């Protein structure tokens, strides 16, 4: 897209330079025309011959000037179209950049919220893990006590049995 902008700018600069050259040539032709009108040679014959030549040159220059004026108008129209197109493209590019900035900002905020959520979940998981370990230790102790009590019960039961047999 930047390459297109660059091409358009180069084209505009080229056409502007051409337009300036045309204007300078028009000014030069107007100066020559004024000189021709002011020119008054002393010899009448020279003047007539010179006048005919100058008139022919002037007519040629006038036709060239007319062609240049038409070309200039066409170049101006093309230049305006290119400027308008360039302006629309720049506006489109700017709005696209703004949209992308907004989207990036939204995504960054969403990512930040997810990071906070993950951190909260990790804290809760750590707390639950500690609680689970504590409960597991308590259950292990209770299991050990129960096994000891079971063993004592079996011992007492076997003693009781032994005593019954003796009686």
Automatic annotation (TrEMBL):
GO biological process: centriole replication; de novo centriole assembly involved in multi-ciliated epithelial cell differentiation
Coiled coil regions, renumbered to chain: 55-124
One Gene Ontology cellular component: deuterosome
Subcellular location per the Swiss-Prot or TrEMBL entry: Cytoplasm
Taxonomic superkingdom: Eukaryota
Keyword Cytoplasm: yes
Entry keywords, A to Z: Coiled coil, Cytoplasm
Protein name: DEUP1 protein
Species this chain originates from: Turnix velox (Little buttonquail)
